[in-house]
């Protein structure tokens, strides 16, 4: 397999009245995949979606250069984001089939065929079963945590939810990235997660990021402040930048500064112009 950066998670349908067909494709695997590709990786995506979305994904200009393998699902993971004064309200209307250890082992991305340099777990709706942790083999395993920290209410609105068994799973990661929004701005929870993670990065919007490593916290402000209401995908671009640079350098400070700059470029230019 000609892939050295494997992303696992759902490609989503992001509903939008401004898009042809009423939606655009999204999800952490898409945004992180584009960033990893720009940085020279050969990207693979293991995901799940319904048959009626296959043509759209196969022809998408951002995804078509990647090796995308999927499990068939009855429905797609479908979101709608609403922004007001820089704040996002998110709705989740449906979810695609989960990704399990059995599914991974049966896929063409199984370690029987290759060992990727980097695996990034990028859940957006708790779709990655905990069993996957037990079968992954890679030089570096990173994760964006947002999908394990979400729930939806009876009105389909997305809000924060605690992640069961986080102590066990954070220890299995070489690095993890999450945002202040992901944990409802709970500073104590970020410190709690940091106790169990080898490296934990908390993204803080225009304030850059904080890196927790070996009991220390270091803050890194972006070199350039960018004001933008739609920040969709910025954290995913940041994560791919951080994981790639940290895998190369083993230096969290260099990696944080690099990831800040890459996410800022995405906010300024848009994902289509990141390539």
Report what the structure shows.
The protein is an alpha/beta fold. 25% of the residues lie in helices and 28% in strands. Strand 13 and strand 14 (209-213) form a beta hairpin.
The assigned CATH architecture is 3-Layer(aba) Sandwich
Strand fraction band? 25-35%
Order of helices and strands: EEEHEHEEEHEEEEHEHEEEHH
CATH topology: UDP-N-acetylmuramoyl-L-alanine:D-glutamate ligase
Structural class comes to alpha/beta
Q: Kindly state the mean pLDDT as a whole number? A: 92
Helix coverage percent: 25-40%
Number of strands: 15
Cα distance, first to last residue? 23 Å
Number of helices: 7
CATH level-4 homologous superfamily: Ribokinase
Residue stretches low in confidence (pLDDT < 50, at least 5 long) are none
CATH class: Alpha Beta
Strand order of the largest sheet: 5-4-1-8-9-12-13-14-15
Shape: globular
The profile of the biggest β sheet is: 9 strands, mixed
Main features:
275 residues; alpha/beta; UDP-N-acetylmuramoyl-L-alanine:D-glutamate ligase; nine-stranded mixed sheet; four-stranded mixed sheet; 7 helices; 25% helix; 28% strand; globular
């Amino acid at each position: 397999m000609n892939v050295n950066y494997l992303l696992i998670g759902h490609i989503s349908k992001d509903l939008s009245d401004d898009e042809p067909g009423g939606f655009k494709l999204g999800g952490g695997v898409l945004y992180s995949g584009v960033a990893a590709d720009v940085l020279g990786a050969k990207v693979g995506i293991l995901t799940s979606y319904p048959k009626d979305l296959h043509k759209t994904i196969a022809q998408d200009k951002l995804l078509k250069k990647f090796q995308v393998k999927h499990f068939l699902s009855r429905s797609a993971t479908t979101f709608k984001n609403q922004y007001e004064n820089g704040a996002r309200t998110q709705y989740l209307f449906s979810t695609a089939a989960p990704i399990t250890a059995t599914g991974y082992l049966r896929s063409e991305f199984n370690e029987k065929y290759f060992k990727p340099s980097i695996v990034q777990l990028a859940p957006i709706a708790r779709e990655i079963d905990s069993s996957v942790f037990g079968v992954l083999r890679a030089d570096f395993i990173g994760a964006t945590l947002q999908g394990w920290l979400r729930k939806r209410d009876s009105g389909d609105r997305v809000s924060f939810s605690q992640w069961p068994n986080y102590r066990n799973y954070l220890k299995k990661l070489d690095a993890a990235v999450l945002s202040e929004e992901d944990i409802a701005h709970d500073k104590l929870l970020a410190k709690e997660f940091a106790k169990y993670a080898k490296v934990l990065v908390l993204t803080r919007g225009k304030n850059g990021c904080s890196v927790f490593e070996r009991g220390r916290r270091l803050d890194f402000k972006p070199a350039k402040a960018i004001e933008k209401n739609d920040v969709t995908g910025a954290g995913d671009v940041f994560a791919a930048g951080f994981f790639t640079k940290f895998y190369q350098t083993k230096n969290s400070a260099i990696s944080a500064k690099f990831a800040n700059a890459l996410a800022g470029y995405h906010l300024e230019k848009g994902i289509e112009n990141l390539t």
